[in-house]
Design brief:
Helix content is 31%, strand content 23%. It has one domain: Maf protein (Alpha-Beta Complex). Strands 2-1-3-4-5-6-7 form a 7-stranded mixed β-sheet. InterPro entries: dITP/XTP_pyrophosphatase, ITPase-like_fam, RdgB/HAM1.
Amino acid sequence: MKIVLASNNQGKLAELQALFAPLGVELIRQGDLFQGEAEEPHCTFVENALAKARFAAARTGLPALADDAGICVDAFGGLPGVDTAHYCTQFGYDKSDANNVRALLEQMQGTDNRRAAMVSTLVAVRSPQDPEPLIAVGRVAGEILRTPRGDGGFGFDPVMFLPEFGKTFAELPTEVKNAHSHRGRSSQHMLALLRERWL
């Protein structure tokens, strides 16, 4: 089964391809099929993921899978949330993973409450008008370190410390990260939904 991935993020594509391999599902990056990206005007992960999935399905005629994910920091009332990817730009930095980490650490200086959660919301639609989208949410709670550790993963992985492992996401072996990450958890839930409803 071919499903268009409503993302051009290479890190996301690699993670999701590995996670969806057991189903025999082939994920095709939307950028390989058409130009442009969906608007993401909403303040929740699920609304943005649904908008992206419907957009990709409409542009390709294929079932579509979209992920909207981010970091929710307790001290910031759950922000940056849906604005995670562009977080650093509000502080004058160019958009990049490294600058996002730098901006977050700068904004958290002097903050003792380091609790945060990484959240991934996956939405799959069979068509742009699908009245019953599949929705899967994965969440991992941890703490934001004061300095990055590890060189794996992407995004905020080097500063997202997981007490249960005593490591950051960036320090975990890929297979362990994929099994326990927010995206790993939402993917396992989505795999179960796809098996039950679509396959």
